[in-house]
Here is the input.
Amino acid sequence: MISCAAARRVVGLALLSVLQLAAEVRTLTILHTNDLHSRLTPSDNHKGGFAYLATVIRHEREGCVDCILLNAGDLAQGTPVSTIYRGMPVFEIANLLGIDVGTLGNHDFDYGWQQAQNFVETAKYPIVTSNVVNGDGRILTGKPYVIVKVNGLRVGVIGAMTNSLPTLTTPALMGDWHDTPVVETVRKYAAELRPQTDLLVILGHLGPDEEKALLADGAAPVIVSGHLHSNLPMALTDGGRVMVRMRGYGEELGRLELKVETKTKSVVSWEWKKIPVDSDKVAPAADVAALVKTWEDKVTAVVDRPMGVSKRRLTHAEVKVLLEDAMRDVTGADFAYMNLGGVRDVLPEGPLQERAAWNIMPFDNRVVFGVFKGRALPEVIKEGKTIDPDKDYRLAVSDFTAANQRAAEQLNSTGLVFREDKGLLRDALIQLIRKRKVIE
Here is the structure.
């Protein structure tokens, strides 16, 4: 027999052990990328490239028993290999990166919702998006979330899509699929998922206001975001919750190191760093480089043809003007409008290959135009000009802008009908550069 005091000590130690177990703290490391946009090879700043990104990822995963890799959408669209082959090679190559969970971005729908579902099937990792559904409420990716088990933790990852999706896609490509309110939808699935997990992570392709709204909402203690292409100078925090986002085009890899208390399912501490992907300092992963070369060789004959010379590097804003010149040139329009968000690259200095035009305009947007009375022209067109309200004017835009007039940044119009089609905007740009020969 033992004394009462000894018994109490035994019971006390047992309770302490139970409490310690209940309040166990475990580590989790989240590596993350976003907005890779099919940049298979390094940009002209020697950053990025899938083979170099793979090397950095593999280095960070060496000896890391608590690592997972997340991708926050817009894997497709942005370079000729994606445009010509409708994004599929990019997802095939991405399978070599070791992604554990991904979500879709708005540009992953640029080839239609059916192709987006093909991407989900091609990926050898789960792709989750909770708030893109059809009229029957069926989720396009098949699942709103997934549970990943790592280092003794059950990590629930919920996918989320920006509610700007309707203005960022051509309506005909979406069919019956549409977005539901992102904050409310994520909150619903977080409540469903929380009892099954030790930590919730929102993997989102989000606008800045949506990032802040989800962070403040508190549905999950961790948010990994994408869509804006720019990184956060420092992680955003709110009430112990943390949100991170990296620079696009694979120019850097995020590493978020967390300590997670399993009892409260909360983050007790975190550290975030940005790891550069510099092709001058790391060697490419051989298996990824070989597959990249296979696909790049296929497109070389199509896009690596000379078209002119640029005496200087043109910024995105200057390329917007060049595209508007191209639209006027091919249509004979009085005015042209190009949304700045549709300009996807700069024009490099020096000899120009057609590849540069493909990088600037990877979308198969077409030049359309219509004839309108001066009074009907959008304010952004009339600004700074003398316009006769009763005179007919010809206005050229892209078919994307024509389909999304009110959302097209500064155009903010509605009801304008553009009946004439003059072919691909990319071809119009190539034609203009060939005609000018030298871009000043």
